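Q: Given only this backbone (681 positions), what sequence would you predict?
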């Protein structure tokens, strides 16, 4: 997950490959709670690992539930949940539930009923936005049953305290009314909790008003059945929890991929999988129990070409531009957000209705979507329960605010394909899109952007590059790595390429002047970068690359034309979305002459020798600072006078002497220069 304040997406132009979806959030948190309440042990295969599921797991552990990682089939992830059998082990706890409605609502209901009958005192709270999300209708239904619930803040909203004395009796004889037109999670919460207190009689729930988001209630009913509870319903208005219900573990249960998350990649295929291979989505398909799988129908209506089978979808562009549509989205409330962004690429005005629930989600999604799409140039009309989107007449580079809402961030990423939207030639190439707080996707899809970048393509000239050139030990690599971390960009340490070639040559006994053999070695180099680690021939070699004999040989072979040519294509391949920070001696002059920002980093020879000395000593390598300085000055002279790509600043490079600057101070200077060159406010 990108843990950065903003992420700039370059203009993107194509998509193909395979996406493996994370587990469904809606299914995961329901299954985790059911497994915790059930008798016996449950092995949960492929649960979602995200912020929302983590707060649920933390809460279950706090309640005394045993949760252990386990081996899953096909090498995936799994959790082993030791059920409570409907009996409280812990009778007092404070539970922080973040912004997870799928944890707050059902835990409130379950703990209110258990506290009322077995005794207990539990406080449930979340982030500030959670304290703005209504829960009053659920609380009133629980109070009518006889539960003692105390408002710890604004009435009708979290935080709450549920409490009670052992032996308490509940009023379950009469039907329990609950509103269905605000959030289906209120009904689902009651359905998940009431089997805990249905020993003596059937318990009936009556829905008042229109039940929205029926597909999510359908998921609840399906999962209840897996844990031994068959709930009957009459036209989604009257639900009966049978007498004597008891949760029993199914032994093992698999969490299918998240259909809401699939919507972004279905849309991606409809927009950008053209002229080549389709986009394949694995983890959810025609056999899904999730209502959001019906997003496929809406995408097809807009022009997507979709094939489906058990556990998979395959999507490519059909009609182009996409076709506007008018759709009642009650059946796909979360996925409908993706349609609002697809509308940017449609011919005509798209109208999405029956989406009042958007206003009580992680943010007011109707208002948020309208605000952010207007920044891109779209014409947007919003109402209490609808939104209308007309594509931009002229696209604008935009900074998209995400409101700590994972779906806003993921939807906004699709705007980066604006180069495909038939923009007038006078508008120039495609425009970048800046997404604020991209880490918010951790709520449901922590690796969303990494997954996206794994299947998209961009024209090389559209992918931004920052180069950092300079002499040996000037701190190029440290500065480049820090810049890349702050921007979410890839890194290219060109020195590592030459050093790795040098290390391999030393291992193989190749002479320093055997240019042909060195070039063959470089062309076939078995080299991988795994985060900060450099892997040569399957073995980590980062520390060995710092050896002085390796650095000295690297400087010599870097002057050999055949070796440089062999490594040039590899260097260019690092230029991929979202961007690249490349450091070396000729990144700005030879390898990336069109880089958007070129930095030439310098420091005095004395300062560089001191830094190198400290670095070597910290690794337990003996070194003499006088010898190090002499060696650095010799390398400088050799690098400046070599016939191939001599060390010198690019004509348009900005010079930065970091002799008296810390790494953070140097990064701030370069980021300031970078911001001046971006098209965002």
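A: Predicted residues:
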């Amino acid at each position: 997950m990108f843990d950065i304040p903003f992420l700039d997406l370059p203009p993107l132009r194509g998509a193909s490959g395979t996406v493996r979806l994370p587990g469904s959030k809606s299914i995961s948190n329901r299954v985790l709670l059911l497994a915790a309440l059930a008798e016996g042990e449950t092995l949960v295969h492929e649960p979602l690992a995200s912020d929302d599921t983590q707060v649920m797991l933390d809460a279950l552990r706090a309640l005394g539930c045993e949760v252990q990682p386990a081996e899953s089939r096909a090498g995936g992830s799994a959790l082993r949940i030791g059920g409570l059998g409907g009996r409280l082990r812990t009778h007092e706890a404070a539970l922080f539930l973040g912004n997870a409605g799928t944890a707050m609502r059902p835990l409130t209901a379950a703990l209110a009923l258990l506290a009322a009958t077995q005794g207990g005192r539990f406080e449930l709270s979340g982030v500030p936005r959670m304290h703005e999300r209504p829960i009053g209708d659920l609380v009133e239904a629980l109070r009518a049953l006889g539960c003692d619930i105390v408002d710890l803040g604004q009435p009708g909203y979290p935080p709450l305290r549920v409490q009670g004395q052992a032996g308490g009796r509940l009023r379950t004889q009469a039907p329990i009314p609950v509103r269905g037109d605000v959030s289906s999670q209120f009904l689902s919460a009651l359905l998940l909790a009431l089997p805990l207190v249905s020993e003596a009689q059937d318990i009936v729930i009556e829905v008042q008003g229109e039940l929205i988001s029926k597909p999510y209630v359908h998921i609840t009913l399906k999962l209840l059945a897996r844990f031994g509870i068959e709930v009957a319903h009459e036209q989604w208005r009257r639900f009966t929890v049978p007498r004597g219900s008891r949760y029993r573990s199914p032994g093992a249960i698999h969490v299918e991929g998240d259909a809401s998350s699939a919507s972004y990649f279905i849309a991606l295929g409809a927009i950008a999988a053209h002229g080549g291979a389709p986009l394949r989505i694995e983890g959810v398909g025609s056999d899904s129990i999730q209502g959001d799988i019906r997003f496929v129908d809406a995408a097809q209506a807009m022009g997507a070409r979709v094939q489906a089978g058990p556990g998979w979808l395959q999507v490519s562009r059909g009609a182009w531009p996409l076709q506007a549509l008018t759709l009642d989205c009650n059946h796909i409330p979360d996925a409908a957000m993706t349609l609002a962004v697809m509308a940017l690429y449609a011919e005509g005005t798209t109208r999405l209705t029956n989406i009042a629930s958007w206003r009580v989600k992680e943010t007011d999604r109707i208002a948020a979507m309208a605000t952010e799409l207007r920044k891109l140039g779209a014409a947007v009309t919003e109402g209490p329960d609808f939104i209308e989107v007309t594509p931009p007449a002229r696209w604008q580079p935009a900074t998209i605010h995400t409101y700590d809402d994972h779906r806003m961030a993921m939807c906004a990423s699709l705007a980066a394909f604006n180069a495909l939207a038939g923009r007038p030639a006078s508008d120039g190439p495609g425009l970048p899109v800046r997404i604020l707080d991209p880490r918010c996707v951790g709520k449901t899809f922590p690796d969303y952007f990494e997954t996206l970048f794994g299947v998209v393509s961009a024209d090389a000239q559209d992918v931004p590059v920052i180069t950092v050139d300079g002499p040996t030990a000037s701190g190029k690599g440290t500065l480049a790595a820090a810049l890349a971390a702050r921007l979410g960009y890839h890194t290219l340490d060109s020195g590592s390429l030459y050093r790795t070639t040098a290390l391999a040559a030393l291992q193989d006994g190749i002479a320093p002047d055997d240019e042909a053999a060195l070039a063959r070695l470089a062309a076939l180099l078995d080299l991988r970068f795994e985060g900060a680690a450099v892997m040569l021939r399957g073995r980590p070699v980062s520390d060995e690359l710092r050896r002085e004999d390796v650095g000295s040989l690297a400087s010599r072979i870097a002057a050999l034309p055949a070796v440089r040519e062999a490594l040039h294509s590899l260097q260019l391949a690092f230029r991929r979305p979202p961007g690249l920070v490349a450091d070396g001696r000729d990144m700005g002059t030879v390898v990336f002459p069109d880089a958007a920002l070129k930095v030439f980093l310098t420091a005095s020879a004395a300062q560089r020798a001191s830094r190198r000395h400290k670095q070597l000593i910290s690794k337990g390598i003996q070194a003499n600072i006088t010898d190090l300085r002499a060696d650095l000055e010799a390398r400088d002279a050799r690098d400046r006078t070599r016939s191939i790509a001599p060390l010198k600043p690019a004509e348009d490079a900005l010079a930065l002497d970091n002799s008296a600057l810390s790494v953070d101070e140097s990064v701030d200077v370069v980021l300031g220069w970078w911001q001046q060159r971006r098209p965002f406010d």
